[in-house]
Amino acid sequence: MAEDLIHDRNAGIERLLEIMRRLRDPGTGCPWDIEQTFDTIAPYTIEEAYEVADAIARRDWPELEGELGDLLLQTIYHTAMGEEAGHFSFHSVVTAISDKMVARHPHVFGDASRDKSADQQTADWEAIKAEERAGKAQQGTLDGVAIGLPALLRALKLQKRAARVGFDWPSTTEVLDKIQEEAAELVEARDTLSPSEIAEEFGDLLFVMANLGRHLGLDPEAALRAANAKFTRRFEAVEARLAADGKAPSDSDLAEMDALWNDVKSAEKRVR
């Protein structure tokens, strides 16, 4: 029966669960899969989430289908290990998230009014989450902001939490002033302080830059991804122009590459 399930392409999630059980079977499974733990699989989970985001950014829908499958596999992996250890199962995880979504959407699944703006519904969502944290004895304003989040995203979430209780600058003017202050401190640190102190000042500047993004209504993580994509696109164009002259970047110098960079940048602006 189990063998039939593994080869049944119409069996859906139960097929994938059975495949994972077979992979993790101590007697007949895959040696690599058997020795994996929550800690060893966690980095793959993060990587797969980013690959999903990358496929979306590139609007590559066939690729997204595959990446979503890879991400789903990570959930299957963690729940299989949870079941083996007696912590939880795939089905208990599904029950928990289903219960949470119903509880957090009383305007859809309950008697609450749907006649609210998106901002009002967001505020309601946050209020419900605050009640859930209180039920978990998470009383601090910053409790529950995951440590493992990407640093820019965690900075944004920490700042949003602090802003809810009034710990926030009133406008971008104060944030920009703070950026100038932190930049000056970084320059001073570079010339007079230790590497660890320089790193601390650099981190302070990044934290305030994330805060500026929040005040401007921007997602710092998305903005930096876009900047990375722009840099990649322009540098590849510089390489292509060098290649047209039979050269590689290592055959060039900064002055030449900078001039080509400016040409590429100007060409992009003309196209807009």
Structure, explained:
By secondary structure, this protein is an all-alpha fold. It folds into three domains: 2-103, Helix Hairpins (Orthogonal Bundle); 140-218, MazG-like (Helix Hairpins); 222-271, no CATH class. It has 13 helices and no strands. It has helices at residues 2-6, 13-23, 31-35, 38-57, 61-84, 90-104, 106-109, 118-135, 151-164, 172-192, 195-215, 220-244, 254-271. α2 packs across α5. It is globular. InterPro entries: MazG-like_dom, NTP-PPase_MazG-like_C, NTP-PPase_MazG-like_N, NTP_PyrPHydrolase_MazG, PRib-ATP_PPHydrolase-like. One of its GO terms (molecular function) is ATP diphosphatase activity. It catalyses: ATP + H2O = AMP + diphosphate + H(+). Residues 36-109 form the NTP pyrophosphohydrolase MazG-like domain. Keywords: Hydrolase.
Could you outline the blueprint of secondary structure elements for this entry?
Blueprint: H1 2-6, H2 13-23, H3 31-35, H4 38-57, H5 61-84, H6 90-104, H7 106-109, H8 118-135, H9 151-164, H10 172-192, H11 195-215, H12 220-244, H13 254-271
Helix pairs in contact: 2-5, 4-5, 9-11, 10-11, 12-13
CATH class of the largest domain: Mainly Alpha
User: Care to count the β-strands?
Assistant: 0
Structural class: mainly alpha
CATH topology of the largest domain: Helix Hairpins
Q: Give a short account of the largest sheet.
A: none
The fourth-level CATH homologous superfamily of the largest domain is MazG-like
Distance between the termini: 60 Å
Task: Give the integer mean of the pLDDT values.
Answer: 91
Q: Report the portion of residues in β strands.
A: under 5%
Which CATH architecture of the largest domain? Orthogonal Bundle
Radius of gyration: 25 Å
Q: Count of helices?
A: 13
Oligomeric state, counting identical vs distinct chains: single chain
As a percent range, the share of helical residues equals over 70%
